[in-house]
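Handoff note, outgoing to incoming analyst
You'll be picking up this chain. Sequence as last confirmed:
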Amino acid sequence: MATERTSSAEDELTMDEKRENVIRLAFNGDRKAFDEFVRAIREAVPRGTGVILRGSAVTGRRWKDDAAFDVDGPGTSDLDLTLVGGDEVMALFKLTGFFVPGLHSRPLSEEDPEIAPSLVPLRERLMAMVRRPVNIQGSRDAVIYLRGELMGQPYLVLIDKPDGQ
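Most recent structure output, in case you need it:
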């Protein structure tokens, strides 16, 4: 699996390389802290939900401008979590909390703290663990496929969705 490529986009990192980047950059090399972070997410999201991490923690560079992770100082780069699933995931967000209703939410963030009230405790817990902003978004599989496979936006799978879900 270490040599398996996640897409055909430019010299993509493997999932293992992405995971190592995340552990090194966002968790100061502490694999146990990374595992605890994933466990906290698993305990809080609906059963059958997939979870991915996108952004500069995965690649070391920001997608939109190629700036380095934490370019503005320690703890300044955020972690962008996406919950991937169906109706149970979409129901976590208020109707006003979507870019595309029922398909792709806006991120629960400092700018939009009220769009997913039931996820606020998870977000706060995760931010305390990593001492940096954590944004939580909800998307259906089709959106992730479009962004990841067709647009080449890299992501790391933190929690796999069970087959058939």
